[in-house]
Amino acid sequence: MAFTIVFLKFFFLALFYASPVLVFLALSIAGLGFWIGKREGWSFSDSLYYAFITATTVGYGDFHPRHMPCKFLAILIAIIGVLFTGIIVASGLYAIETAFTEVRGIAQ
């Protein structure tokens, strides 16, 4: 249980420090999604759904842009999404390494 608590402490601390970048990336994803949705004639919720499904690279295929500029922006959304996910994964790895070092005394 001590390991989990230490892990969560460092994970959320890392996310806190990265939060300005994460918020910027999330707002970029949402903004680009809304722009695409407006151009494609989608609703607000459909645009947000499309943006984050594309950003996570899931891509169910139920929505897809028809206009060429929107397709290029979809690629940009996917790249930003991979960066967003990478920062969260890196924060988790940092927290695991720190928790192992503190709780178990395992060092490199």
Question: What attributes does this structure have?
Answer:
mainly alpha, 108 residues, 0% strand
Characterise this structure.
It contains 3 helices and no strands. The protein is mainly α. Helix 1 packs antiparallel against helix 3 (68-104) and helix 2 (44-55) packs across helix 3. The two termini are 23 Å apart. The mean pLDDT is 93.
Q: Could you tell me how far the N terminus lies from the C terminus, measured between alpha carbons in angstroms?
A: 23 Å
- Envelope shape: elongated
Number of helices: 3
Q: What is the total tally of β strands?
A: 0
**Rg, nearest Å:** 18 Å
Percent range for helical residues?
over 70%
Low-confidence stretches at least 5 residues in length (pLDDT < 50)?
Answer: none
- Structural class designation: mainly alpha
Briefly summarize what is shown.
The protein is built from 3 helices and no strands.
